[in-house]
Amino acid sequence: MSLLDDFVVRAALAGLGVAAAAGPLGCFVVWRRMAYFGDATAHAAMLGVALSLAADIPVFAGVLAVALAVAAAIGAASGRTYAADTLLGVAAHTSLAAGLVAMAFIPGARMDLSAWLFGDILAVSRTDLVAIWGGAAAALGLLAWRWNGLLSATLAPELAAAEGRDPARERLILMLALALLVAAALKVVGALLITSLLVIPAAAARALARSPEGMALGAAAVGALAATAGLAASWEWDAPAGPSVVLAAAGLLLAANLAAGLRRALSAR
Amino acid sequence: MTPSPPPAPRSDAPLIATEALTLRHGGVTALSRVDFAIRPAEIVTLVGPNGSGKTSFLRALAGTLPPASGRIRRREGLRMGYVPQSLALDPTLPMTVDRFLRLAGERSRPARDAALARAGAEGLSERQMSALSGGQFQRVLLAHALLRRPDLLLLDEPTQGLDQPGAAAFYRLVAELRDELGCAVLMVSHDLHVVMSASDRVICLNGHICCEGAPTVVAAAPEYRALFGMGTGGALALYRHEHDHAHDHDHDHAHGHAHDPDHAHDHGPAREAAR
Questions:
Q1: Which residues, listed in sequence order, are joined to residue B69 by a DSSP beta bridge?
Q2: Taking CA atoms, what residue in A is nearest to B88?
Q3: Across chain A, what does the average pLDDT equal?
Q4: DSSP string, A120-133
Q5: Whole-angstrom Cα distance, residue A222 to residue A252?
Q6: Taking the CA atoms of chain B, what radius of gyration do you get in angstroms?
Q7: A62 CA to chain B: closest CA distance, Å?
Q8: Is the ipTM of this complex over 0.85?
């Protein structure tokens, strides 16, 4: 019954739910230079999908568990023999490759491969919608709960530690929020494009923001706008939905920077 | 021990104390076996050549550098205000001065503005942190530390980049803050011989504690005027190093002995200047 019967409405709600959490979380990804870390976590989702299908458990739970495991492994191993970005590169591509190989051995999974890689927002079911909103709300709740601590630890870890905060714990909170978001966003944009939903709206909001909260809200708004515009474009021209959302976000990033440039030029007069 | 300690020993018990504290930094021993204590309302200045472990020591006390061995005892409920030498703020994080001060946990805007004014950075509230000059930034960090209502202020080379009158003005501010807040102050100074005159103790570090003593206040002497000129208002004093050892032994950091040329251990210059 009602509005939710319409697959376009379900798709729009899924996009908005992910955007609302990806915006603020993406700000931390940008501030802490964690884009590659986001990629590694998101690619690990493919392995999570394969394992969930093989073990016949809900995909959301499998993805969440594997994303967390990979994030924790990277955190534990970084700063030893290899530089952080080397480790991230190894983790991101190994888990993606492992996921692809595992999928090949699961009957029927191969058919859905591109849906997992690039998202299938138009096929979001009511159950998916519950998982997406649940995951996004949990990620957003974590951020809201720890907001000041996360901000302190991000801005100046030394000061935060001297003030009795624990930057390592804040980092764990962010990892958990990221894993939740990856699990929620997988169906919407797919494993390969999740990081774009984190980075692009936050970068667009940075151009015009004056405060961290302003940037977080702006990023959520840009994400929501991009989700709506991308879906509309997909409807209008039959373009793939997930990539259209990402392209719309990139367009908004460009527009925000043009607006910021214009504002600077006007105030310089 | 007893579950609820009596509040009485608050008086003169050390705020923070180290026992045989050894610190390593990137595999190199930065500081070995330091015993140190600072009591309420005491002002202690740490001097020492570059690479002598001053900043590592402050970071260890602030809790951001874990000890390699030895221990640090903090009084229960100790509140510290830490002003690091520099902070690498990421320009991708938009942050006004006032929002930064709010992160110290102070909800009242008038209180934040008052702290900013007290630190000598009045009117900067709405500026972006990334747009501040070095001196302004340092004062904003001090305001942030003050808002913590600290029992102990840790200041890492706060007068770096200031000229002598500027340093003297800053030292006067620190002395006033100590009197107003009753907080102890531990300050790292880059100048080996000219220190804050209100220091109760000066400690010279170079991989370990080399010597310790009170600064020589010679503000009335004509030599002092010759050195510092007028207008520093007696905020500066000299410190006489009394090292009883030569620096050719134990600890394994090779660069540790490349002292400043004016800091020979049998000196010398400071003694003469003080006399």
A1: B22
A2: A156
A3: 88
A4: -GGG--HHHHHHHH
A5: 7
A6: 19
A7: 33
A8: no
